[in-house]
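Morning run. Coffee first, then this:
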Amino acid sequence: MAMKKHLPNAITLLNLFFGCMALTAVFRGDVYAVAAFTAAAALADFLDGALARLLHVHSPLGAQLDSLADAVSFGLVPGAVFFYLLGGTQTDGFSWEAAPGFVLTLFAVLRLGRFNLDTRQTEHFIGLPTPAATIFVLGWLLAVHTDALGWGAALGRKEFIYAAIVALSWLMNAELPMFSLKFKAFQWKGNEIRIIFAAASVGLLVWLQSAALLPIILAYIVVSAILDRVHSNRKP
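And here it is:
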């Protein structure tokens, strides 16, 4: 029983480990390692909660560890990616032009702190979740590196990166309902939107590969906005 209770926390710590590895890869300029370790961190972040629900072993410690791990994997790492894209690792001195990359980290940690205190976010999210924001940043990095769909040159421009930092920082902390992709039960009923969105995302990944990450997160934001509008119109 004691071992079972700590399994979700062990997976949460794997999230943190993979986040640390992704961070070192950013500063080595190893784009594909950044992608691999960040994907592993996101998978661990998904599995720890799923396993906790399956084993019925929720704990206050688990909630705190989850936020602390996320602060690195989905706060520090995406900030470091933007720092890298702004040229911060290409100079021996300090780069003020690249420093705003870590503004995203500040707002990601702010979102995580607010999430821990917000009792409304049990069935859905308020604001863009930090893992989704990180996937968007990862997609941005890969688009610049591979020139996916011919977007590389444009997305590598500093003004577009600054705009993305502002937009993502706002989206993470805005009062915008976002549907949750976490399954509480593995069944169709009640999970229709999640299953359809997950299937469409897999299709985009097969079709566009690394270029799919940006459209997937943009679609997540748009679909969430549409669902919120539909639900609002149904209210008496």
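The chain is about 70% helix and 5% strand. Good start to the day.
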